[in-house]
Write a structure and sequence with these properties.
Blueprint lengths: L10 H52 L10 H4 L6 H11 L31 E3 L11 E4 L10 E2 L2
Length: about 160
């Protein structure tokens, strides 16, 4: 008497298929993370370029860039990259009490304290007079979520 072939999959076949699906899912998820990070980096580069253009417009109208080392003690005590420095830059480019608006900040560009944040959720850094671009120019940067300054997005 002949044995009829079974109608189903063996345990080995099922494990092989599940393993292949797991590997493919891992590859897709890692690629999606890379694409998201690359998109955030591109957006930060575009925002720095737009903020730089707004600062140039500010200088054309006001005669100089907003200075972070002014005699005002609230400005003089600000460290670059802090909420205070970022809020200072935002209030100069988009004053709430009248005056010319040099840059229109979207809802996602500021945090609850009013600081300008990059797509990674960190504050943009701003300093004038700059130390990297020379004393007659400003420094504007995003840490891009990294402590390695070589990977930062900057205008210099």
């Amino acid at each position: 008497m002949q044995k009829s072939p079974s109608k189903g999959f063996t345990l080995i076949e099922l494990l092989v298929v599940i393993t292949i699906i797991g590997i493919l899912a891992g590859l897709i998820l890692s690629a999606a993370g890379y694409i998201q990070k690359k998109g955030a980096r591109s957006r930060a580069e575009a925002e720095i370029a737009a903020l730089s253009a707004a600062l140039e417009s500010f200088k054309a109208d006001m005669g100089d860039y907003p200075a972070t080392n002014a005699a005002d003690p609230t400005v003089a005590s600000m460290s670059p990259g802090t909420d205070a420095a970022s809020v200072f830059l935002r209030t100069n480019l988009m004053p709430v009490s009248g005056g010319k608006v040099f840059f229109e900040f979207s809802k996602g560009m500021t945090n609850s304290s009013g600081a300008i944040v990059d797509p990674f959720g960190n504050r943009y850094g701003y300093r004038y007079p700059g130390t990297m671009n020379g004393s007659n120019f400003f420094d504007l940067w995003s840490t891009a979520g990294s402590s390695d300054s070589n990977t930062w997005i900057k205008n210099w």
